[in-house]
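Q: Convert this sequence to structure tokens.
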Amino acid sequence: MIFGVTPILSVIRNFLEVASFCVLFLCLDRPRYTWKRTWIYYGIYILVETAIGTAWVLLDAESYSAACTTVLFVKSAIFFILMSSDNIFQCLYNLCLQIFILFFMLFTGLSCTKIFFAGNPWVDVGIRFCYMIVLVCIYIRWLRRAYREIADNLKTQWKGICIVSLGGNILMVYYATQPLQISLRAGREQVLFLCICILLMLTHVILLYTLHLMQLEIIDRQEMELTAINNEMMRKELELLQEQVESARRYHHDSRHHDLMVAEYVRRGEVATLLAYLDQREKEYRDELPERICENKTVDNILGIYIRQAEHKGIEVSCDVIVPGMTRIQDRVFVTVIGNAMENAIHGCEQTGSGVKKIAVFIRPKAGKLAIRISNTCLGEVVFNKGIPVRKNGRGTGILSIMHSVRSCEGDVEFSVEKGEFTTRILLKI
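A:
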């Protein structure tokens, strides 16, 4: 260390370093456990690392200055990955970002104290404390929400970004500690190191901004798909409404003849024949009414539209559906998820050519979630990429929209092919 080593100073400095590192990481992380349990684990980790770091610096300050950042990175990587629900590359990128912030904090704190305050160690402590408070406020106020949106929506784009960030951090730490700690070198080297830090910061900004643009592009594509699906659903609803209008016209036309028949039977006094005629008409009315599939009107309408479309194409549809009339699931989610799944099921049956064509629909509430399973006969030549069905020209119809809507309900979706049947399994939180 530069400004003298005492037990009190060592404890405070190590505590601020480890606490800053952990708190900043948590600001961008999604923990695996509850926040209460997470803070307990992190509190224990901070105390243990503070004790280890203090003992190390008191025993050998030179080796501590040269290797403490690297050792902290390795130990924290293991601990943070075990504590986080993000994938390993997201964790490592978050870790790289916070290591860079921590190292920059140490460098600026020591340099400012040396240049402007004659090496007063308590000024260094104060700078570190203020630095941490300001950064936590910035993270929570502006960065956390944007970062979490990127991290939650982009799961597979982090490997290359993580490698670039990790390489940059390794070079920064090596240059700052070998052969001598950067704060003890000449002013020219310190300026050069500051330029390297600024360049690395710009790299992080560009990487995050690139991920943000990728996320916006995916959201735009999903919204376009959703708009197309909604338009298709509206078209089918208009077709259904037109059918109902035509039925009403036929009923109005038939009712005129019906009234004439009733009047004629009354005029002739043929009461028994009239009653038999009315019974027959009542039976015909009941047969003409569409069968109700479930209590939920939105799900009932969606399934009704696609079932009629499937039966018109010679596809047999079986339903085992129980959906409450009121749920917390928005209608647009039902339209996107069930509509897309049924559309895919019909396309899958059509591609089988001749032979038996079947669709089985199962929807039931189960343990606080709505379980949806839609199966259809298929050719068995479905290609999967990371669990997602794809075609030669890209993903299947509406797959992205299904996944996006399911994710918005904190649900799960799974696609599989077994014994000539393609199955979509969905769980929606209700």
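The first helix runs from residue 7 to 28.
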